[in-house]
Amino acid sequence: MDPSMGVSSVTISVEGMTCNSCVQTIEQQLGKLNGLHHIRVSLEEKNATIIYDSKVQTPKTLQEAIDDMGFDASLQNSNPLPVLTSTVFLTVTAPLAPPWDHIQSTLLKTKGVTDIKISPQQRTAVVTIIPSLVSASHIVELVPDLSLDIGTQEKKPGSCEDPSMAQAGEVMLKMKVEGMTCHSCTSTIEGKIGKLQGVQRIKVSLDNQEATIVYQPHLITVEEIKKQIEAAGFPAFVKKQPKYLKLGAIDVERLKNTPVKSPERSQQRSPSYTSDSTATFIIDGMHCKSCVSNIESAFSTLQYVSSIVISLENRSAIVKYNASSVTPETLRKAIEAVSPGQYRVSIASEVESTSNSPATTSPHKTPLNTVSQPLTQETMINIVGMTCNSCVQSIEGVISKKPGVKSIRVSLANSNGTVEYDPLLTSPETLREAIEDMGFDATLSDLSEPLVVIAQPSSEMSLLPLANESDKMMTPVHNKEDTKTSSKCYIQVTGMTCASCVANIERNLRREEGIHSVLVALMAGKAEVRYNPTVIQPSIIAEFIRELGFGATVIENADEGDGVLELVVRGMTCASCVHKIESTLTKHRGIFYCSVALATNKAHVKYDPEIIGPRDIIHTIQSLGFEASLVKKDRSASHLDHKREIRQWRRSFLVSLFFCIPVMGLMIYMMVMDHHLATLRHSQNISNEAMINIHSSMFLERQILPGLSIMNLLSFLLCIPVQFYGGLYFYIQAYKALKHKTANMDVLIVLATTIAFAYSLIILLVAMYERANVNPITFFDTPPMLFVFIALGRWLEHIAKGKTSEALAKLISLQATEATIVTLNSENILLSEEQVDVELVQRGDIIKVVPGGKFPVDGRVIEGHSMVDESLITGEAMPVAKKPGSTVIAGSINQNGSILIRATHVGADTTLSQIVKLVEEAQTSKAPIQQFADKLSGYFVPFIVFVSIATLLVWIIIGFQNFEIVETYFSGYNRSISRTETTIRFAFQAAITVLCIACPCSLGLATPTAVMVGTGVGAQNGILIKGGEPLEMAHKVKVVVFDKTGTITHGTPVVNQVKILVESNRMPRSRILAIVGTAESSSEHPLGTAVTKYCKQELDTETLGTCTDFQVVPGCGISCKVTNIEGLIHKNHWKIEENNIKNASLVEIDSSNELPTSSSMIIDAQLSNPVNTQQYKVLIGNREWMIRNGLVISNDVDDYMIEHERRGRTAVLVAVDDELCGLIAIADTVKPEAELAVHILKSMGLEVVLMTGDNSKTARSIASQVGITKVFAEVLPSHKVAKVKQLQEEGKRVAMVGDGINDSPALAMANVGIAIGTGTDVAIEAADVVLIRNDLLDVVASIDLSRKTVKRIRINFVFALIYNLIGIPIASGVFMPIGLVLQPWMGSAAMAASSVSVVLSSLFLKLYRKPTFENYVLHARSQLGQKSPSEISIHVGIDDTSRNSPKLGLLDRIVNYSRASINSLLSDKRSLNSVVTSEADKHSLLVGDFREDDDTTL
Description:
Blueprint: E1 7-15, H1 20-31, E2 36-42, E3 47-53, H2 59-68, E4 72-75, E5 81-82, E6 86-92, H3 100-109, E7 113-119, E8 124-129, H4 136-142, E9 146-148, E10 171-177, H5 183-194, E11 199-205, E12 210-215, H6 222-231, E13 236-244, H7 249-256, H8 263-267, E14 275-284, H9 289-300, E15 305-311, E16 316-321, H10 328-337, E17 344-354, E18 375-384, H11 389-400, E19 405-411, E20 416-421, H12 428-437, E21 441-444, E22 451-454, H13 465-473, H14 480-485, E23 487-494, H15 499-511, E24 515-521, E25 526-531, H16 538-547, E26 551-555, E27 563-570, H17 575-587, E28 591-597, E29 602-607, H18 614-623, E30 627-630, H19 643-684, H20 688-697, E31 703-705, E32 708-709, H21 710-726, H22 728-739, H23 745-769, H24 782-802, H25 804-813, E33 818-824, E34 830-837, E35 846-849, E36 858-863, E37 866-869, H26 871-874, E38 880-882, E39 887-888, E40 893-894, E41 899-905, H27 911-925, H28 932-961, H29 963-969, H30 979-997, H31 1001-1020, E42 1023-1025, H32 1028-1033, E43 1039-1043, H33 1044-1048, E44 1049-1060, H34 1069-1080, H35 1086-1099, E45 1106-1113, ...
Parallel strand pairs: 43-50, 43-52, 50-51, 51-55, 52-53, 53-54
Antiparallel strand pairs: 1-3, 1-4, 1-5, 2-3, 6-8, 6-9, 7-8, 10-12, 10-13, 11-12, 14-16, 14-17, 15-16, 18-20, 18-21, 18-22, 19-20, 23-25, 23-26, 24-25, 27-29, 27-30, 28-29, 31-32, 33-34, 33-35, 35-41, 36-39, 36-41, 37-38, 37-40, 42-54, 44-49, 45-46, 46-47, 47-48, 48-49
């Protein structure tokens, strides 16, 4: 009988007892309840200890019973303690049959008797008693007709009186032990603690710094063990709360018969029986497992039966029994007598075995010393994929050799294996993984905990009866009671690089006590843990994760996990509708908050996604009679598309342009006329008055009103709309800049245009007021011209920026819009399917994904096998095999099989949503670079304002000191005005002229024109640059980060080498290629495509043989049958022959025609033979595939495979007709120009880094081929972003070169994102620069073009400022004494000249020529050379602990330098030698030195 499920003891605290009558009341009232064996109430300790039948009562019902009596009862420990029971065997001594009913009722009324089983045929009774309450002798006294069986001694109850102390045997304890340095420390602890009384077993792990101890709590306490470890000199603390081991009935018997440790006694075991026999019975009438369980439990009580194994499928029972005590016929009758007595039994066979070994002793008979035997647990593993007995044998052979495995039985029929193991040495999960590594699919059965037995030297069979009892013992990991008391926490986890990290954390955390469920999100770097707060705390969970080697911190605000739902609810009419919805929803478990607005028809719901989901909430509202639907979220990334800005700058530009064209026409006309008059004056010596008269007689200078000319009126009218409508946005931007106390380009433009407009308007009004004859000089032409150019530049800039949002739109389009949710019954049979919006998918839903479909959410496969394209995350083109238990990612594409997944992350938690978020954050956080013009304006504005004010003050002072100077130079002023007014007006005119000539028209043009020309030139050279920012930024780049797949490499696998493993006379190379090519032609896997392509090239054919019975096992390989390849081989032979003839005829031109004729005869002979269509059985795949198919891989072949794998290649084995014939090495090859590009970037003074999601081996191999020394491998998309940020925080400007969706967040975050044109749309949209030609040398060219453009922009600024710097002193009147006065046309001419010179200077960029490939090669030839692996520092994930070589001493460095110089000499020599070689061989060292890898035969 199982103590944990049968008899239990619980102690309940009772408050409110005052005297002994209270005690008696409780004892009497409880005594009336069913299933209670013993009650002891203590007034002093204020508690009640109750021993009860756990099938009838629970601690909760007992507590409520005491509560009902009027006392306050509370449970001290919610987990009841199992109570040891003893079995007494009684036999009938009287010749007549005793009154069985009377005996049964008498015994069951006796205190301490829990159960009685009577067998009238055998005249025996088996009584289960609690030894601490009743003894066997007492039972015999009660029933005089029965006597104690001779084989049974009375079991001595434990020395402890208190029944609550009668605990089930053993407790497992885990302790953290610090300070251990070597194995002698572990031996010391094991030796010292192992000798303590009550300690059964101890295992100390040096690596984990922990000790696992199995002890008996009634003999020794945890504190005592801890003190003893500390006394040995090692600090120790309890890591895991002690856990009671669950024991079967047989184990309880063994435990009770176990004397406390005594080494002498352990030697004195004598076998009870000298002979055991085995009988096989055929049993008809068994229907289910409970029938099996009935028979087994009945037979487990018979002392002369050693073991019984029953098979429901075979309708058989194998019984091991003591032949001297019982006959097979008696056993047959005993089975037929088992309740309900419906079985028909026949004896199939009988085998007698005589054995003196204790191995066959009955578990009931032998007292067993537990010290010498380790604990054993048993687990069942479901195994899928076994096809024959050789699979069974291979699994049993491999697993039985694993440490800690005692025995394994694999059943092909039941597709499962039962393993007995030592829990201190291995675990079910480790065993499951070991079976999976052999190529089978293995899952642990639904039993949540393995059965614990205590091993003894008995046959395997004797343990079997326990297996079925385990069904009754198992409890699910978290039951209803647990979920009520469970809490949820979120932990930020760093350092995860791939799905295996996630699996590792989930697997290890689930083993910890008190943890109900774990869900880890790789991209978000977050673990969601549901735990029991009474057992474990979040800080301890985080510590567990840290122990596994990851960083972990508890996230404090746990609201992150709450789901928020926005719904549109239709059909509400009044406030009562609102109340009805709110009250109904809030009653639901899992809904925290609900608010419904009648006016907007919206509902806002906060809920726990683990308990309830959006579909349930919508169904609830619909069941109330309202319509509910999701609020459609705008996921178009419109906040980043710059549409509003593009619209406003376009409008601003078009308005300014419309009014600017006539203004410019007028200005050019006036310039031409002024110039004409100036030449006329010089040639004819005309006086000033005559000049003024001629000037005013011109059409545009004619006055409509006194002081107002046609020219000024037209200019004023054309300027007003530009100033106040075209320039509106400049005013807004300038106001914002001044508010933040900065002066940028906008401030300068607004200052110049406003002053020019205001001054011109005031001076015009003054002239009209004074009725002046001479028209004043106005600057109405300045604002339109300036606004046109600047608005154009801004418009183009925002168009380029707007492209960024397209990347997000492309990413969002990867998301599936709908999901097919299926309903399964308990047998996993599909009941229904429904299509729902992807936003309505809930965690835990089962979703069907068909071939070619996208995964709508992240999940775990529960049924089906398929290959999945996950380039979305990894960037790797290779599809990934998925089977039950594998995780899948939203947005990845299912390729071949239809599979069912269970949703684990939905909505914003999916990996794809995380990537969208990363790109969004990168684009919004990327500060626009402060343009050079803005920087310049910061200094230029204050300087010009200062000069202007200085000019004003200086002229006022000069005017008051010496008015004659002003009078001389202020021509045409009205004599009627006072001197003071004249002085001030003159000073103002000079100051405003300074401001206007300093107008930054050319300053505004300097950048946009150069950028326009630069981007145009880039486009001609195959480099698309999106706007000015990346073009300006690229020259500042200090670090270039390359992605690997598709950027440094081609991104598609290619066959590097074929190694033939058999003699060529048995299997020629051409035949193997023909067979392999034909077999792989049916495969859709990229590796298969690469192999077929290679075989076709080698055989020079487009058609291959016939492939039948094609089977593919994802993640392993293929098997098929190949025929009709003889034609290919003959064709190949014929071609070789033909080449031989050609070569021979070239060498011996004059020779006779014997050779060709003989050759043709040979060919004829070959053709005349009938082609035998031989069939070949082909296997192609990895090691596991070959082992599963019974092939042995020699050490040589394994070494070759390891060598290829070290170089980052995939090694594939080929077997034809069950013989290993070849090894194919396949790898993604490096682009021929990659090494050259890396070398040139380094020579430009840039740091080059390789960042890849691939493994470190492959990354190191590729890096050594192209000369990169710093590598980050196994990097997630989020890590790429973090790495780029990290480099930027070091003050470096970063360029990222990539091609995949997984690169897009990093491309967006980098200062300059460069995408390869053949890459994904998302990457191209996220990048700033796109290389159309898929040529890495264009990375160099884009940086070179940027440097040239920035240089040109700087020259433009010189041209822009030179006129201002010359014109300002003239305008301020510095050169007046020498007669140099600023004439009206001079200001306009200076402005026009500076603008024209800037535009011309920018057009010089058109002459830019991209350096040719040959130039690069000549420049770099002498210095190219591969890096040795020791020079490369590899960083895995994002951690910065690089696996670098140690720092070298002086001598080592000298040796290294000399070695490097020798290498460079050799490489020079090699480069000189290779000049003669053909173009194709120019980059032989880029692709790896494959000369050593030529096809060879082993």
